[in-house]
Amino acid sequence: MTATKLEPDVRRTAEATPPVRRSAVSPLSMAVLGAATLYFLLPIFWLVVAATKSTGDLTSTFGLWFADFHLVDNLRAVAEFQDGVFFRWLGNSALYSLGGATVGTLLAAMAGYALAKYEFRGRELTFSVILGGVLVPYTALAVPLFLLLAEGGLTNSVWSVLLPSMISPFGVYLARIYAAASVPGELLEAGRVDGASESRLFFTMALRLMAPALVTIFLFQFVAVWNNFLLPLVMLSSNDKYPVTLGLYTLNTQLTLVPELKAIIVTASLLSVLPLVIAFLCLQRFWRSGLAAGSVKA
């Protein structure tokens, strides 16, 4: 009886509900999206294919298809090259990226939270100056940073790469927008009435509410530091402190003298992008939600 009574109601509700209009995707849009996808994925596919070839096959076979499978031999050659110097470079990149992104995200969260939730003289001017830092090209800062760190005797050290990597003006911008929208002032006032200190309010409440934005900031900073080439080139002179980008560059400069390095360079290049792929796959859910929320709340 119940099912008999409900069926007409459900039918009437379905008839009263207007059909959802699906936005049509034009063929031109699909063509542009397809071309963009091909543009980004084709080099990756070439890299995967090339990493399975021997040095001879790299020049004598078609670049976009497989030949004899030599991936295991190439991986062994990368591991044995100069007593495993590639994995030292990979470890240095992980140190610079994880350290710089972690501390940079925390500093950006603290600065963005303070700019969003505290009233003080010069707040907007401070935010404008930080925002102006986003517009300054990184190449313009490399030499001044080198001179500053040279005064402190920090060049050719891990700190010469780590310290500049901990600063993210874009992270401060994103953190301020997200903190202003996602951390209610009433919640903070209630915490203060209950006797919570400002540091406790930030670390136990604000950080949790800002988590999606912090993941986005962390990913942006991690990728930027991992792919950074100019700063290590200016700061570092010791081979054992190189990140993977600078290490692969030094190998590439020797290619004309030692053509046998080609397979090692290609395979090492493939290995160097795997951490970025893993990071994006693991954090893409938080990254997309944080970026979308930040864009809407801006």
UniProtKB/TrEMBL annotation:
TM spans (from-to): 28-49, 94-115, 127-149, 161-181, 201-226, 263-283
Alphabetized UniProt keyword annotations: Cell membrane, Membrane, Sugar transport, Transmembrane, Transmembrane helix, Transport
Segments forming domain ABC transmembrane type-1: 90-282
Membrane topology of this protein: Multi-pass membrane protein
CDD domains the record matches: TM_PBP2
Annotated compartments: Cell membrane
InterPro entries the record matches: MetI-like, MetI-like_sf
Matches recorded under Pfam families: BPD_transp_1
Top-level taxon of origin: Bacteria
Record's GO cellular component terms: plasma membrane
An example Gene Ontology biological process: transmembrane transport
Sequence similarity: Belongs to the binding-protein-dependent transport system permease family.
Protein name: Multiple sugar transport system permease protein
Organism encoding this protein: Kribbella italica
